[in-house]
Design a protein that fits this description.
The protein has ten helices and ten strands. By secondary structure, it is α/β, with parallel strands linked by helices.
Length: 262
Amino acid sequence: MQTTLEPQTSFEVSDKGFYGHFGGAFIPEMLYPNVEELRQNYLNIIADPAFQAEFWQLLDDYVGRPTPLFLAKRLSEKVGGTVYLKREDLCHTGAHKINNTIGQILVAQRLGKKRIVAETGAGQHGVATATVCALMGLECIVYMGSIDMERQKPNVDRMRMLGATVVPATSGSQTLKDATNEAMRHWINNPVDTHYIIGSVVGPHPYPDMVARFQSVISEEVKKQLFAKTGNENPDYVVACVGGAAMPPELFTITSMNHRYV
């Protein structure tokens, strides 16, 4: 039976974690206390002026924000428009992942957590998590598919040099999905002292909302930088990769295009 969905009317998450018809927290009962503790506290923690001051100070002085908005002249000529690249690859650790891990490590500290668990695919989120754990002196455990560990050995070495324990996921496809499963199991078994830093806008509420808030620094900078360069704060198009950290996470902003380019 086919159903018709009403148009999305709001991009704001509801108090139950839904974006219109989608979202929520469909989780095992054993995971409920962990997620509920985070849901009840994250907004108040993030809104605290002391949190905001420390978060922005670390983004400025440690991550290296703001990242440049670069006019890609040759690419612009090729596609017939004006293309700017948001250079998130110039962040400390080499990717946008650090924006979120900085935010979540500060949340974890305020929740009294002493250990951090994370999943990683290509290794960028794992490196960012290991980096902030080393910065704050917290134990770090990263689950990574055994096949991915072979493919991305330099990132595995970086995590270990930063003091993280990298645990191979050997079940299933031995890649990101299985690493996530193992990280979830670890969190279920260690609910009191451990925080799970999820790396993307995925998972049960409040993670999609929380990660999006921490990563919104990118769009805030783009609007200011684009206005300074063009007099308009909004691009005509925004193009970004989807599918994880295997590709460089630059944000493409395309303006003044006379045709759609895919």
